[in-house]
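Input record (one chain):
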Amino acid sequence: MEILYTRCCGLDVHKRSVVACLLTPGEGGQPTKELRSFGTMTAELWALADWLAAAGCTHVAMEATGVYWKPVYNLLEDRFTVLVVNAAHIKAVPGRKTDVRDAEWIADLLRHGLLRASFVPDRPQRELRELTRYRTTLTRERASERSRIQKTLEGAGIKLGDVASDVLGRSGRHMLDALVSGTTDATVLADLAKGQLRTKLPQLERALTGQVGPHQRFLLAHQLAHLDDLEQLIDQLSQEIAERLRPFEDKIVRLDAMTGVGQ
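The corresponding structure, as predicted from the sequence alone:
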């Protein structure tokens, strides 16, 4: 079988340890095999990288195990050609002996060019992906918090959502803040309406007549504060994402012009 890489390494990555199997040219065409274990602290991963570099290693392969491969990849990618391989693909390659360690098997497959690397975006793209995914998580949390606020209002008999299209719009937020501060007069609350909503004052008065207890004011106060925090975080993330996308602004504008594609 053709040998593709003469100096390569297979890594078995765990949460607290990395087992490395380094293969280098040996006598009679058989590779020299060296196994070492390293911790996953940054200093220990640097020691792993230095050891591989000193041995002249050119290629490193590891399984895509959870998120544990990411710090290893981030540290090694500038010094070696690093392959992250789907675990199912490695298991599908026939010929493995039962007493062979994962790191040894990965190294042997890598040596013969039998591994198919998964696509890993470059570092700026990975960083942008983390930011956008976190923003998505916060956006979903914001929607959940809005639902919790609506449930609290319903429990207090406040039917603001039946009259106002956006309970948490400018008018709705003024009313909710007044409810939290202890205002119970429905006429006073309805009079906080702005714009077109003022044409619905009678309906608002009926919708804002309820029984808001102390525990519901407590819940509303914390739910609204949490919502404000989420809004601020989402805005900050959006600004950071927009700054990182600035070099691609022309491409984004062209893509946005396509039917069905939006920002």
